[in-house]
Here is the input.
Amino acid sequence: MTETMFAIGIGISFLVALMGIFVSSSISFAGVGNYINMDRRSRNALDQMTRNIRSAKVLTSFNTAALVFKYDASGTTNLAYRYHTSSRLVTEEWTVSGATTTNTLLTGCDSFAFSLYDHDLAPTTDVSAGQGKVISVGWHCYGTALSRTNSEYMQQAQIVIRNQP
Here is the structure.
């Protein structure tokens, strides 16, 4: 009887340890998956922004939370990127002949900022006469998996407006 109780105690201890390892591994796996998803969303957003900003004709409006471009020579197509602090969203807005389509690029952003630089990479806010040539964008986002919040490191890039005079 004593040996049986001892064997059952060891078996239960082993199962409890195994269950703890399983739970810990599941939480770690979900966290890694969350980081992978945040990285993929950030990379996709940056790729899309880079492609569209490089193709834009003229930067017409700038502040740290919004960029507005005239996208074609006729001015019928406009592109805007906006950071909405209250909802922590970054959106891309296309306006074609008065009709606006909004796409969400990033969610859960704690911080987001645009910076504008001239041809010599000196900071500027002047969009007149094509003074702004390089746009710097940086953000910090978070995601939640299994009731745990994971934070992504700051993402940053500089984008040259190719068609800007």
Remarks:
- The CA atoms of residues 66 and 82 lie 4 Å apart.
- Strands lie at 58-63, 66-70, 77-84, 89-96, 99-106, 109-117, 134-145, 148-151, 155-160.
- The first helix runs from residue 2 to 55.
- The chain has one domain: 2-160.
